[in-house]
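Input (HAD family hydrolase):
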Amino acid sequence: MFAFQDFIKSARDGTLAVAAVLLFVASAYAQSDPLPSWNDTASKAAIVSFVEKVTGQGSPDFIPEPERVAVFDNDGTLWVEHPIYVQLAFALDRVKVLAPQHPEWKETQPFKAALEGDMKALAASGEKGLVELIMTTHAGMTSSDFQKIVTDWLASARDPKFKRPYTELVYQPMVELLAYFRANGFKTFIVSGGGIEFMRPWAEKVYGVPPEQVIGSSIKTEFRMQDDTPTLYRLPEVNFIDDKAGKPVGINQQIGRRPIAAFGNSDGDLEMLQWTTMAGAPARLGVLIHHTDAEHEYAYDRDTEVGRLDKALDAAAIAGWTVVDMKADWKHVFKD
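Output:
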C-alpha cells in the first residue's frame, strides 16, 4: 500500500520540481531580456518594437546595418546633470586649483563668483561669463595634459548629493539601451553640448562608446613642437558649439549619415530629434528622457535653467516621440 509518508514526499518533491521549473523560466526570461532595468511599459515596448522592425529580415522597415546610426545626448540623457552640469563642476574646481596664480580673480567676475560658490552671480554673468570660465580653465595646455587633468579629476571628484564618482552616476537603463542597440547592429554616438575632449577620456570605459564616436563642443587647437615632441595645444577660442541647431550640423560633419534613432532630454536636443525623425520613411525613433523621479534622482522639466524640457516636450506630442517617464518606466536609475 502506498504509505502516507510516501505521498507527502511525492507531493513535496513535485512542489519542488514545479518551483525549480518556475525559477528556471524566470531566470531564462531575465537573461533573454536585454533591458532588465526597464519596466514593461509602453516606452520599453516602443523602443523594442522599433529595433525589431528595422533589424528584421523581410520587414518593410528593414534598414541595412551600415545605416543603423543612433545618437544620444549625454548630460541628463546618459548621466546626471543636476544641480549643475558635471563639466561646469569640473571648471569650478579648476578655478580653485588655478586661483593661487591669479590673485586678481578674488575681485574679478566670473571668477569671484566661482571661488565663492555664488551660483546666482555666476548665472548673472551670462553666456559670456561662462565661456570665459571654460576658456580659462580648459585651454593653455596640450590635449594630452587636459586629458590627464580630466581623468584625475573624475577619479577623485564626488557628486555633492549622492557622494559617488560622477562616472557611477550614469543611468543603468541607458547603459543597457546602448548595449542593446549595438547588439542589433547599430553604431551608437554621443552628441553632446559638453566638451568633446572632456568626454572622450572616459566615454568608452563607461558607455562602450569609443572616442571617434563622441561629438561635442570644442575649442580651437593648433599643432606645436614642444621639446621636439609633436603636440596639439588648446587655445582659448571657441571652435564649435554642439548644442541646439549645432547638433545636426555636428552630426552631418562627423558622421555623414542621418541617424535613424535619437535620444535626448531637453530643449537643447530638439533640433537633433527633428533632424533624425522628420525625414520620412524608413522608420525613425525619437526619445526624450523625462526626469520625474525626485526620490532616486531629480524631477524637473519646464522650470529649470539646467536641462530645461519645454519646447521639446510640446513637440514630442506632435511628432509622436516616445517620452520616457523615469519614475514609471525605470526600475532603478543608477547601478547599485
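Confidence is low (pLDDT under 50) at residues 15-30.
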